[in-house]
Amino acid sequence: MRKIIATTAFTLLLCFQIPVANATTACGPTSSEASHDSANGTAANGEDGYCFYTPEQMNVKIYEFGLCTSASSPTNKSSCEQMFQNTAGVDFNLSVGSVSDLLGEVTVTEGVAYTHAYIVLSNTTSISTTIEFSTERRDDKGNLGKYCFTDGRSVNDVPEPPSIMQCSNDPNDPKKRAAPETIVFGDPTVPAYDNKVLNYTVSMGGTNIVSDLYMVDDTFQMSTSFADDHAIYGSQQLATPITIDMSAT
């Protein structure tokens, strides 16, 4: 059970496009470390022992999103049409929510092929989920059970835990808690700082999802230090361009 994890594969524009992972890379009832191997293409993002699983909850704060005719950045959104903005942010559960819940009246140019989208969301999140297996799994604490769930540990903990999940035969085990995470680019223990990750690629369902990621401060300008990190600006190329056609039925 050590490496069977619930992963969101940090696809920033999850609310625009939700690709379905191939069965071979998705966590399933019979998943094990051995069954998800990069050598035969069954490992999530090529990481041996890992698989994709959509959490029951992924809680973030959304500040802004829109559609663009080309890649954008915090310093250049000239190709974009904003569809939502709230400088205070709106708490949102990406796993079950619909981005349409955030939309009021928006104006989007008809007939334009939008090839990219962007979103600005908090760099702090938490996920909560339970995976049901066909047979018992043993977690890193030695517990056995068919239900494995997030237990409140975080990948940010020092030292980093071997897992953020534990197992039980009780699907409503009271030890289930959301796993918090603060996303950073790089290692805060190392003096070097980087505020962007370009061409970040996630492979799901046979599709490569490519994003440019930028860390911004609380004024939504490029962050200059780990201490100023506030939100992530993601510019993502859409798998299929979106064209608004009001005449379509």
Tell me the number of strands. Answer: 11
Strand content: 35-45%
Uncertain segments: 1-21
Q: Tell me about the biggest sheet?
A: 8 strands, antiparallel
User: What share of residues is helical?
Assistant: under 10%
Q: How would you characterize the overall build of this protein?
A:
0% of the residues lie in helices and 39% in strands. The chain has 249 residues and is mostly beta strands. The termini are far apart. Mean pLDDT is 82; it is low at 1-21.
Q: Could you give the topology of this structure?
A:
Layout: E1 57-68, E2 80-93, E3 113-122, E4 124-128, E5 130-138, E6 144-150, E7 165-168, E8 179-182, E9 196-204, E10 207-216, E11 231-243
Antiparallel strand pairs: 1-2, 1-3, 1-4, 3-11, 4-8, 5-6, 6-7, 9-10, 10-11
Key features?
about 0% helix; disordered N terminus; 2 domains; 3-stranded antiparallel β-sheet
Summed up:
This protein has two domains: 190 residues, no CATH class; 57 residues, no CATH class.
